[in-house]
């Protein structure tokens, strides 16, 4: 029985080049703090404050490299704290999603859409997908065994690309529900 690594993806922001310049100053670039599991993706030294109608969250991580659209990924708990209606969506599917203000050290921006709670998903290479018997955009479940909080995650979307490395991503609410800590693996259920 093949298992997939499960990683917790905490709240974070993806920014366009234009928004990086507004928030951090003309000519600013993102400073890599550490590489992430997905090839080419990295956590940045820079942080921002995300502001909603009810509250704000300071020191939110930025993930690089720059994107074609600014996007804020939060847990549903974060969304409630901020007072933002953040739909559960795949990354990049931001049309009609939540709005917020983002504040950096040199400026601020208002986005009219772009705040989402990321849909739980698994990144697979084509070879991984073949091994697990799944295909791109397929919806699966993943069984997780933990100390006192074992569960089955449903509605997990499979994403397949030769640019990926095998890993399932869940948000902090989901991680807490599964009592996840350290390296955790899940069994893909078709």
Distance between the termini: 12 Å
Structural class: mainly beta
Q: Quick one: biggest sheet?
A: 6 strands, mixed, barrel
Average pLDDT, rounded to a whole number, is 96
Residues in helices, as a percent range: 10-25%
Low-confidence parts: none
Comma- or semicolon-separated keywords:
190 residues; Barwin-like endoglucanases; single chain; 15% helix; mainly beta; six-stranded mixed beta barrel; 44% strand; 14 strands; six-stranded mixed β-barrel; 4 helices
Description:
It is a single chain. Helix content is 15%, strand content 44%. It has four helices and 14 strands. Strands 1-13-10-12-11-14 form a six-stranded mixed barrel. The longest helix is centred in the first third of the chain and has 8 residues, at 17-24. The mean pLDDT is 96.
Which helices and strands occur, and which strands form pairs?
Elements: E1 3-8, E2 12-14, H1 17-24, E3 32-35, E4 42-51, E5 56-64, E6 71-73, H2 76-82, E7 88-89, E8 98-103, E9 108-118, E10 121-124, H3 126-132, E11 139-144, E12 151-160, E13 167-170, H4 172-177, E14 184-189
Summarize the structure.
With 190 residues, the chain is mainly β. It is built from 4 helices and 14 strands. Helix content is 15%, strand content 44%.
